[in-house]
């Protein structure tokens, strides 16, 4: 989803979005095992320009399938995202001496630099989506997880290892006798 810089002015520009996640290149870093979008990414993007600074704001929704952190069962989660990103159509202010390294301030690190006369809105959108994906999902508050000994799903089956499990680092101390 590309937009020409000349089409963005002080008046707000709105762009509705409805795309499958596969069409957003920045989301290709996710494997099917990590996250699978089960609904299109829908929302509204708004842009406004002041000199060389462009403000991008948006609301985006979708549904993503992630694995439960306890039992590994696929679990669907709603994705509801509101964001604001600053883009700059000009180079950051630096010293005149090109030989020296330039340290960027914190404000400059939060700015997306735009090269050329077009903006690809999918890159900052993908970054915002990746930042809000949950890192630890639980299918239910009562999930018992997997047995660390035999790997049985304790939500469905009884454990087959009968508490034997694997030897722990402190098992050698169980026979220690102190007088």
Describe this structure as you would to a colleague.
- The chain is mostly beta strands and 179 residues long.
- The chain folds into 2 domains: 2-143, no CATH class; 145-179, no CATH class.
- The chain contains 2 helices and 8 strands, in the order ββββββαββα.
- The chain has helices spanning 106-109, 122-132, and strands spanning 2-4, 13-19, 36-37, 41-50, 53-67, 74-88, 111-113, 118-120.
- Strands 2, 3, 4, 5, 6 and 7 form a 6-stranded mixed sheet that branches.
- Strand 5 (53-67) and strand 6 (74-88) form a beta hairpin.
- The mean pLDDT is 82.
Number of strands: 8
Number of domains: 2
- What sort of overall outline do the alpha carbons produce when their principal axes are compared? elongated
Structural classification: mainly beta
Give the H and E element order.
EEEEEEHEEH
